[in-house]
Design brief:
The complex is a heterotrimer.
Chain A: H1 4-23, E1 32-38, H2 39-43, H3 46-58, E2 61-67, H4 69-77, E3 83-86, H5 89-97, E4 101-117, H6 130-140, E5 144-146, H7 152-163, E6 176-178, H8 183-193, E7 196-200, H9 201-206, E8 213-217, E9 224-232, H10 242-253, H11 255-263, E10 265-266, E11 269-270, E12 273-274
Parallel strand pairs in A: 1-2, 1-3, 5-6, 5-7
Antiparallel strand pairs in A: 3-9, 4-7, 4-8, 4-9, 4-12, 10-11
Helix pairs in contact in A: 10-11
Chain B: E1 8-17, E2 20-30, E3 36-39, H1 46-54, E4 61-65, E5 80-83, H2 94-104, H3 109-122, H4 138-151, E6 156-160, H5 168-183, E7 187-191, H6 195-201, E8 204-209, E9 212-218, H7 219-224, H8 229-235
Parallel strand pairs in B: 3-7, 3-8, 5-6, 6-7
Antiparallel strand pairs in B: 1-2, 1-4, 8-9
Helix pairs in contact in B: 2-3, 2-4, 3-4, 4-5
Chain C: H1 2-16, H2 20-53, H3 59-69, H4 74-85, H5 100-136, H6 141-151, H7 153-169, H8 172-178, H9 188-197, H10 201-233
Helix pairs in contact in C: 1-10, 2-5, 2-6, 2-7, 3-5, 4-5, 4-8, 5-6, 5-7, 5-8, 7-10, 9-10
Classes of the chains: A alpha/beta, B alpha/beta, C mainly alpha.
Chain lengths: 282, 258, 234
Amino acid sequence: MNYNNNHFSIWIAAILVAVFVVITGAQAADRFITVASTTSTRNSGLYENILPLFTKTTGIKVRVVAVGTGQAIKLARNGDADVLLVHHKPSEKKFVTDGFGLKRHDVMYNDFVIIGPKTDPAQVRGIKVVDTALSKIAASGAPFTSRGDDSGTHKKERSLWKSAGIDVKTASGSWYRETGAGMGATLNTASGMSAYALTDRGTWLKFANKADMEILVQGDKRLFNPYGVIVVNPAKHPHVKLADAQAFVSWLISKAGQSAIAAYRLKGQPAFFPNANPGNRS
Amino acid sequence: MTSAILPLSLDNVSYEIGGVRLIKDMTCTFEAGPRTAIIGPNGAGKSLFLRLCHGLIRPSTGKVSWHANDADGQAPGDAQAMVFQRPVMLRRSVSANVDFALKLKGIARDERVRRIDDVLARAGLRRLKDQPARVLSFGEQQKLALARAWALRPQVLFLDEPTASLDPAATHSVEEIIEAIHGEGTRIILTTHDLGQAKRLSDEVIFLHRGRMLERAPTEQFFTEPKNDLAQAFVRGELLWWRLGKDNRKGAINDREK
Amino acid sequence: MDDFGNALSAALSLVVGLDDQLLEIVGLSLHVSLSAVIIAAAIGLPLGAAVALFRFPGRMAVVVLLNAFMGLPPVVVGLIVYLLLSRAGPLGTLGLLFTPTAMIIAQVILVTPIIAALTRQVIEDLWAEYEEQLRSLGAGPGRALTALLWDGRFSLVTAVLAGFGRASAEVGAVMIVGGNIDHVTRVMTTTIALEVSKGDLALALGLGLILLALSASVNGAAFLIKETAQRRHA
């Protein structure tokens, strides 16, 4: 007496198990730290470039979780990361004073630029004072896409509008468009509607969907974009991999790390400028 | 071994759905031995009656009791079986369908194999034993349903219009199997609206109309001299569309049903 | 239309070149989604069958909830699982965040209601057909459950495939709980999202085509198995 019915289930099970086994490849127990950082930093391609150098020297792998600045700080506060590397000094300082971080170190900086359509309806090309440029954009009614996501870039952008004396909240939905998204998505939107946007240079250089957009405003000191790195405080989160995290930060601000950062170029231009103060080394 | 579960007694059994009484005040007993055919027009309640006896539905009032009830007042399950008008086959092979029923009763493997072989042979289905049950013809499926019930060695076999949808050849095969099962000692209780089948397959007839048992008599006597006038009309082949009068006799068209 | 052309060539060159990274990402995607579906099926099949067969107070509410949860937003599930697995959360000590295991957990939550709700419907319909006969044979709801699950296997394969479709296509949950970490938790969908955010639309689309092809293959394989089995066993 036959049970052909069972062949069906055995067959399915066998295939699945086979696939499963093949795929469940060893994710062997690695030595690693988790770094909470931002999408703009990741999108620039910096990490893919410099982290392997660190791993080669120390054997420590670096897992980067790249999200918006606000989310990165939240992750670090929750203890879901060992190191925080973002670009909003006030938030970083608060992170330390609130007791979640040990010490803030300068790492590098780049700058923000205002990009827009080649046709430049607001006529801001080449303007050296960012307040003027923003006022002209607001006056012209040309669309401006904002990240609107409380990220470092977004916070920077808001402070620039504020100092230019322009209230963008009331304009939200008309010429001021808040995407609530990452830099790349916002740039895609800007590209799609020929709008102006504030972006960090690194993301822009690497961005592959520029369409007919280019950098129109740059160079104002106020567009300075500094990055800071902080080890998460083990007093708040005992599981933090303190030694390895500190090894990473030390490397970043050491000659080796700083020259790796300086060496990273996008389209022939440096994406970041190292500025760790040797006196800050902990 | 289960002890004898017959006689089966129904005591003032009624069955009601949505305020409508579909079985009314049935009282009767089934002893061991004869084959019983339950006949009557459509809607008489034959199928319901069978299900009440088998225990698939509970009476609204009254009691259905077997000689050897278990704690629940139910007859031990492995002593009775039922075959339905439309055979219900699982999506597996012919032999696996029978095996399923035997496994449910906790019968050991060797014994199962023996019985399956035996009933399939006797039902003429042995050459089909590895076929998917669902590709069999309707008649073959019904024979399989019988074989499945037979393998359980039931003391009582209920059959609800077992050949209603079959052609004469298939009907004949099925009737032969029913006879064979009876020959081994199983009590047969079947419903049918084929009067010829009732004559061929039963020793006694119960006539139901609108949920009441109007007559019960040995088969020959019933068909030659039915006592109840509705039964008479039925045997003559008339359509029983009137209502029952007060004394269970044919009422006038305007008589209200109690 | 340029992008579509570029997408096709991007996809082809990745596949033909057996790009290492692509293989790694595809492998991880299959691992996460298949594992999730297997676990979800192990929970959802008996759960759906039980809801179909057993009568209990609040049954209707459970049926409605199961159906409603088929539409659980992945990003919400991701957020909830993050809050549970975060070091600051109740299950933080397990250290599961930003690992494939977390992604599997989130997808199990997404997929189980789909399999359970569809199973419930299949088994309910089967029970309507089989109930009298099974009860006559003495099968209680427990024995009936396994018999019906087996009997409905062809329809249930479709339910499981629907679950796989959902798992392999979603990005919201795995992005949050996995962190899209290179070489660790980066799967097809999160890679596509990443490439979009980098503006590399052609590559993103190309990867999308590969993902579609992957899904089609899995479904195709399941279809073949089902057809052969059905022909042999009806």
